[in-house]
Amino acid sequence: MKRALILGLLLFGMNAQADPKSDPLKESKEKQLELLKKAKYYEIQAKLAADKITLEEAQKLWTKNLKRLERKVKKEAV
Questions:
Q1: Strands, DSSP E only, in 1-78?
Q2: Average pLDDT of the chain?
Q3: Among the four 1, 8, 52, 74, which has the fewest Cβ within 10 Å?
Q4: Could you tell me the CA-to-CA distances from 39 to 3, 9, 10 in Å, in that order?
C-alpha cells in the first residue's frame, strides 16, 4: 500500500514538473525585455525632466528604442 502511494506521488510529481505550458527560457526572455523597456523609459524620462529633449522627441525616442529592443530580443531568441 505504501509503495503504491509513493509510486503514485512520484509519478504525479514528475508529470507536474514536465508541464510543457511553462517554458522558463521564454519567461526569462520576456522578463529581460520588460527590464530593458523600463531602463530605456527611465533614461528618456530623466532627459525629459532635465529639459534636454522635448516631449515630441521623447515620444520618438521611445518608439524607436522600443522597436530596437523587440528586434534585439527576437534576434537573440532565434
A1: none
A2: 81
A3: 1
A4: 53, 44, 43
User: pLDDT value at position 3?
Assistant: 77
- 16 pLDDT higher than 60: no
Is 12 part of a structural domain of the chain?
A: no
Task: State the Cα–Cα distance between residues 8 and 48, nearest whole angstrom.
Answer: 60
15/75: higher pLDDT: 75
- Residue 40 domain-assigned (yes or no): yes
Q: Is residue 14 part of a domain?
A: no
Question: Does residue 4 fall inside a structural domain?
Answer: no
33-70 CB burial, b ≥16 within 10 A, e <16: beebbeebeeebeeebeeeeeeeeebeebbeebeeebe
Q: Which residue's C-alpha cell is 525629459? A: 48
